[in-house]
Structures are given as C-alpha cells and as structure tokens.
Amino acid sequence: MRIIRAKNYEEMSRKAAAIIAAQVVSKPDCVLGLATGGTPVGTYKNLVEWYNNGDVDFSAVTSVNLDEYRSLPREHPESYWSFMHRNLFDHVNIDPARINLPDGNNMDAAAECARYDAVIEAVGGVDLQLLGIGHDGHIGFNEPSDAFDLGTHCVDLTEETIEANKRFFASRDEVPRQAYTMGTRTIMHARKVLMIVSGKDKAEIVKKAFFGPVTPQVPASILQMHKDFVLVADEDALSLI
Ligand code: GLP
Fold it and tell me: Looking at ligand 1, which atom is closest to the CA of residue 131?
C-alpha cells in the first residue's frame, strides 16, 4: 500500500487524474474501473481538461463501472449511468460501445449479475480500478457484512449509506434501497487500485480501514492485501494517522 498525501481536494484530484492519465497513455486500450460519488468529480474534471488539451486519448479505452442503483430509471439524473455521462463520458472521445455499467433496470438480479461478471471477464479484467470510500468502509456498494462478496451481486444499502446519499435526491424516500455492485474479488483482481479520499469526515474510516484489522465488517480493509494499491488522500482525510 502506498499513500500519496495531497494538500486539499484539488490537489488530490490532480494527482489521481495524473495516475489515470498515465495508465491511458501507457496502455491506450486499457480497462478502467470507474467510480461515482462526490469524490471523483474533480478527478474527472481534470481528465476532461487534459483530453481537451490533446494529452489523453480515450478512443481505445474500455470502462466498467463499479455499481448502479437497482430500479432507478437509467435516465434519472442520479443514476450512475447519468452521473458518468455528465461528469466524463459526454466530454471525452470514449467509444459508447466500450462503456459498461450494471443495468439497474434489469430486475432479474441473478441474470444481471452474471451478465456483468461475464462482461468484466470478456474485457480481460480491470487494469486500473478507481475507488472512493463510504463512511462505513464500503467500496462500490460492498457494505459491511460477515463475509467478503465475490462477484457482482445485489445489495441492500445500509441506513448509513442511504443517509449519506440522500444529499443527491429530493428526499430520503427517493434514495433507492438496493444496488448492483462489483464484488470484492473483482476489485482485488484489478491490476492496480487507486482510492481517493478527501475531508475530515473520512479520517476515522481511513484509519480503521488501512491501519486496523482486515475484516469484511470494514470492506475497504481488504485493500491492505492488494499488491498495487495507491491511496491518494488529502491532509484532512489523513489527519488521524
Ligand atoms: C457511494 C458509491 C461509492 C462511493 C461512496 C462515497 O455509495 N457507491 O462508490 O465511494 O458513495 O461517496 P462520496 O465520494 O460521495 O463520499
């Protein structure tokens, strides 16, 4: 595990974007595992800017997103499909045929999870997986549990996650209660994992996840065992370590 310290959110975003850009420059047909949430917005902004400057070319890149809300219409502004288009895909030259997300509108969970695992396998696995972290240590939507989940699966979101994500919706009642998420095995099989974390409110979970025991009760803690895991965090997020 390597920790890269950034002064603030802006510097964290630039450093993370630089790592992703380096991946795309060195392997133009790479597979990027992408993430949503508030944290990656600045990272995507930098990538769009560098694409506009002609420094990064996404034409051969394949993307596989971590997760998607179940039952939220794809066109809803808070679906992860909409988020990714609004923040990145609509502004760079990625081939729409190479964009992959779980289909939250396929209500047959077993079929959808199997389909998504097959997609990830067919593209040869993930070269670089970008992650944020939830306050309870979740990655993607792998919530605290008694065992690490392996492949893509359907999860019931915890009360804490529903509470954290309600800021994106008109009311708490509108937050979907379930999601499809890549499993821990898929994340651990990514050849490189890049986590970005910002803010004092994440300091406690950073300490617990990366300086505490490895346990499925803190899903991100498994990353301590990944052979190429980079944590880019700002001073606030690192303030307790
Ligand atoms: C969501 C996403 C995660 C993300 C987490 C933290 O639940 N499924 O992928 O890492 O929230 O989000 P934020 O960056 O907004 O704190």
Answer: 10
Answer yes or no: is the C-beta of 48 below 6 A from any ligand 1 atom: no
With a 6 A CB cut-off, is 102 part of the ligand 1 pocket? no
Domains in the chain: ranges and CATH: 2-178 (3.40.50.1360)
Q: How far is the CA of 37 from the centre of ligand 1 (A)?
A: 4
What is the predicted pLDDT for the residue at 150?
Answer: 86
User: Where do we find the tokens 């990514």?
Assistant: 190
Of the listed ranges 95-109, 130-144, 157-171, 227-241, the least confidently predicted one is 157-171
What is the distance in A from the centroid of ligand 1 to the CA of 159?
14
> What is the per-residue pLDDT across 111-157, written as a single tens digit (0 to 9) for each?
999 999 999 999 999 999 999 999 999 999 999 999 998 899 999 99
How far apart (Å, rounded) are the C-alpha atoms in residues 86 and 84? 6
State the distance from the centre of ligand 1 to the C-alpha of 80, rounded, in angstroms: 11
**The CA-based dihedral angle spanning residues 187, 211, 36, 115, taken in that order and rounded to the nearest 10 degrees:** 20
